[in-house]
Each structure stands twice: as structure tokens, then as C-alpha cells.
Design brief:
CATH superfamily of the largest domain: Glycogen Phosphorylase B
Largest sheet: 7 strands, mixed
Strand order of the largest sheet: 1-3-2-4-5-6-7
Number of helices: 18
Number of domains: 2
Strand content: 5-15%
């Protein structure tokens, strides 16, 4: 029987650990919010413990929330290869990609897996955040008690109607939905909608700000193994191998760059990416990209490298240019990670990338398929150390102000305040006015069973103390 996996409950981070990055005033403000929801329950459910931006954020969010006195938990749906194949189709189709999908995949590989996970599951929490489509249908199995919020990390503004209309009844049963940007909100939602942008954790190993010599030391084994000259400039591209990450255009731009510019020390283009259990198309995309790179020895692919997080941070630190030109992007945490290392970014003018890269100030924005513009901006950065330095410093401060982890936790704690009644003030990041679901709730005749329900609610912590499962 499949059951949800539980994140290590011993992981706790003190908020004071973030003092060097955001200062005492912001830490004290965070503590004040947390004090009002101390010992309240906040649960998260997603589809993987590692791999991808959601898992990376939760690995840091949950320990910090616990360090602030909130009873935070994280559960993971367990599924087989067929489940992740079909949910990858969901992921693509929700972003408007047309793919064939069968009723057997939806009701077999997907819903049967949800039902199996639900058989041995009970989550009782003040607020449960269900991330993306993979676990969305759990709400129909009557195993989650409390306020449920659907957190969508992708752009659903123009979804494939088959999948969107299938998921919509599950989503509209929630107490609210959270999107990264207002533009990403899909049609037909009848519930409160909130905006929360992802953030990076400065305490994470990959976000440690290495000196150049430290970074080169970390990379020395890989450089020696692959015969890479550390004196030559590096263009880095770090992400999953995925059609939306648009690595093909980066290869095309790099080949154009080599044709029009003759560098005394030719640059390398290094792709770094890991395969993930919930992304079965990654291996196929990697084969395709290697074929496109052909015999060009200046293009390198690093896949599932050991000591991955230190290598990522070190590569970002020494790279002269970082390129991330997705054709569709929920946010793109990797952009913030590169900017935090002081590396200028060439990013596509789509999705959350535009919130991070301010054109001409923290990097350059380009159309994701404009390989000539990408090549031109890359050449400009490679030839101007002063420009790289200025953009890099601006980018680092932009991330410090807006996109470090305590800011993300602060917004979730504001939601927890609201849903526990500790504050009746609407969170300032709510996007819509009075919703249809709220109107219906107000108009309904009071339920004669309500006193019994209130007694049940007051007893939920006793259920939760058993572990929630």
C-alpha cells in the first residue's frame, strides 16, 4: 500500500541564523508575526522530497517555521513511474502544451494512486498547502481536515481545457489558491486567490557565497576530469533538462556567438542539471540536447554530479554569465540563486523571471527564442568586466530585499494568522475581492451540527499529535 512519506521532524532552523542576511529589524518583525500563531499547525503536501524548486524551498521553509514556533510538517505523495508520467503531462498541459492523454491515465495512473495514498492518511491541520497538480485530488478523499490551499507554481493562464476542467472541481473545494503571479491565474476559480513569490535560502549550501578561490577549489576535480581550463570564461545554464527550459536555444545562441566573435580565450557553455523521479522526460531531453551540441567540445553537460549543491554554488560564483531563457516559467529560482552569487543573468521575458531580472539593472531580458539577441548580450558581458560587476552587485541586493526565504515564510505566516482567526485583516497579497465560494458560505443556513463540528475542531490537535498520518 502506498502511503505519504514524512519529512524529518527533527529539522529545525533558528530565525537568528538569518540575521547576517536581512538584519535585526526584519527578523524581529518575523518573530512578532510567528508569536501570534505559535503552536498552530501548517502542513504541506507535494510529490517529491528532492529535485525541483518546490522541494528545495520546503527543505528550508519547514525547519524555519518550526524554529519560529509553528508546528510545520511536510508529506510527500508516493507514486510509480506511470503516475509521474501522467502528472508530467498534467504539468505540460496546464501550461498550454497539447499532448495526448487517455481516460485510463487520468483515472488509473493518477486517481488510483491518489486513492492508494489516501487509504492510510489523515492530516488534521490549521492550514494545509497542497502543491501543484500531483496531490490535488486528495481533497476528494476526505483525509485532510482544516483549511486547504492549492499552491500552483506554474502558469495556468491558458491551460489545456481537458486537464484544467478535470482539476478545477478539486481546486474549487479549497479554501483558497496561491499563484506566483496574477497573470498565472487560470479561468473559472471561485475561491480566494493569493500571490506569493518563491524565495531562496541563503543558508542552503548552494547559496553559500564562496570566494573565487574557494569556488575553483570545489570545481577542481570536475575540471580535471573533463580537462576544463579554469582560465577560460564560463557561461552557465543550470536547470532540469526540460522542453520549457529551452536549452536548445541556448546551444544555438552559443554557436552563433562562436561564429561572430573570436575570443582570445574561448568560453565554455556548461549545462548542469539533475534527473528527478517526478520528471521522466528529462533523460530524453538530455539525449536530444547532446545531439544538438554535436562535436562542439566547448559545450559540456554535467548530470547528477556528486556534491551537487556545492558544485552549483561554485559554478554560479565563477561564471561570467548565467543564461536562463525558459519559454514558460513559474518563477525560476535558479535566477535568484545566480544573482545572489553576484553573477549577471540573461533571462527570458516570461513569468517570474521578469520579477527578478530588471533589464539593464540586474541583467538583461530577451525573447526566449531570440538566439541572436542572447548571443549579443552574452558577448557584451564577456567583453565588459565593469558591466558584469555592476549588474552582479545590483542583482545581489535585489535578491536580498525581495527574494530571501524569511520573506516567503512571513507571507505564509500571514495566511496562517488569517485562517486561524488571529487576524481578520485580509493578507495584503490577496488578488481578488469577495469570491463566489465566500458568498455561498455566508448565505447558507447555519448547520445544526455546527456545535459538534466545533468540538471536533477543538480536538484536532490531539489527532495531530499522533503524527497526522
Amino acid at each position: 500500500m502506498k502511503t505519504l512519506t514524512v519529512f524529518d521532524r527533527n529539522c529545525v532552523t533558528s530565525p537568528d541564523d538569518y540575521l547576517p542576511f536581512i538584519g535585526e529589524e526584519r527578523i524581529e518583525s518575523l518573530k512578532q508575526i510567528a508569536d501570534s500563531v505559535r503552536n498552530r499547525y501548517w502542513t504541506n503536501v507535494n510529490s517529491t522530497l528532492e529535485g525541483g524548486g518546490v522541494a528545495e524551498m520546503l527543505q528550508s521553509v519547514i525547519p524555519l517555521a518550526r524554529g519560529l514556533g509553528v508546528r510545520a510538517d511536510w508529506y510527500v505523495i508516493n507514486g510509480n513511474h506511470n503516475f509521474f508520467q501522467v502528472t508530467k503531462k498534467f504539468h505540460n498541459m496546464l501550461q498550454g502544451v497539447d499532448q495526448p492523454i487517455t481516460m485510463e491515465e487520468i483515472f488509473g495512473a493518477y486517481l488510483d494512486t491518489i486513492n492508494e495514498n489516501a487509504k492510510n492518511t489523515l492530516i488534521a491541520s490549521d492550514m494545509t498547502v497542497v502543491h501543484d497538480p500531483q496531490p490535488a485530488a486528495l481533497i476528494m478523499n476526505e483525509v485532510i481536515f482544516g483549511n486547504i490551499l492549492w499552491r500552483c507554481h506554474i502558469d495556468t493562464s491558458s491551460p489545456n481545457q481537458i486537464i484544467w476542467r478535470f482539476l478545477l472541481p478539486y481546486i474549487n473545494m479549497c479554501s483558497g489558491a496561491i499563484f506566483t503571479m496574477p497573470e498565472f491565474v487560470g479561468p473559472g476559480l471561485h475561491i480566494p486567490i493569493y500571490q506569493i513569490t518563491p524565495c531562496i535560502d541563503p543558508l542552503a549550501e548552494k547559496n553559500h557565497q564562496y570566494s573565487e578561490s574557494e569556488a575553483l577549489d570545489i570545481l577542481s576535480e570536475l575540471f580535471n576530469l573533463q580537462n576544463i581550463d579554469a582560465e577560460r570564461p564560463i557561461i552557465a545554464a543550470i536547470s532540469r533538462y526540460d522542453v520549457h527550459k529551452n536549452q536548445s536555444t541556448i546551444i544555438k545562441a552559443f554557436k552563433q556567438l562562436q561564429q561572430v566573435k573570436k575570443f582570445k580565450k574561448p568560453p565554455y557553455l556548461i549545462f548542469l542539471g539533475n534527473t528527478s523521479v517526478d520528471d521522466p522526460e528529462g533523460d530524453e531531453m538530455l539525449v536530444k540536447l547532446r545531439n544538438e551540441a554535436g562535436e562542439d567540445t566547448n559545450i559540456r553537460f554535467w548530470v547528477n554530479v556528486k556534491d551537487n549543491d556545492r558544485v552549483v554554488g561554485a559554478l554560479m560564483r565563477i561564471a561570467q554569465v548565467f543564461i536562463h531563457v525558459s519559454t514558460s516559467e513559474g518563477f525560476g529560482l535558479v535566477v535568484s540563486e545566480a544573482m545572489w552569487q553576484g553573477t549577471p543573468v540573461i533571462g527570458s521575458c516570461v513569468g517570474g523571471i521578469t520579477r527578478q531580472v530588471i533589464d539593464g539593472d540586474t541583467g538583461y531580458l530577451v525573447h526566449p527564442l531570440d538566439s541572436e539577441k542572447i548571443a549579443k548580450e552574452t558577448a557584451k558581458l564577456l567583453e565588459s568586466p565593469e558591466e558584469r560587476e555592476a549588474l552582479g552587485q545590483n542583482g545581489q541586493e535585489h535578491i536580498r530585499t525581495h527574494f530571501l526565504l524569511p520573506e516567503l515564510v512571513r507571507k505564509y505566516l500571514r495566511l496562517l494568522q488569517f485562517f486561524t482567526g488571529r487576524s481578520r485583516e485580509l493578507p495584503p497579497f490577496r488578488l481578488n475581492k469577495l469570491s463566489y465560494s465566500e458568498i455561498l458560505h455566508h448565505l447558507r443556513i447555519p448547520n445544526p451540527l455546527l456545535p459538534a463540528l466545533q468540538r471536533l475542531s477543538s480536538g484536532l490537535p490531539d489527532i495531530k499529535n499522533s503524527g497526522g498520518i
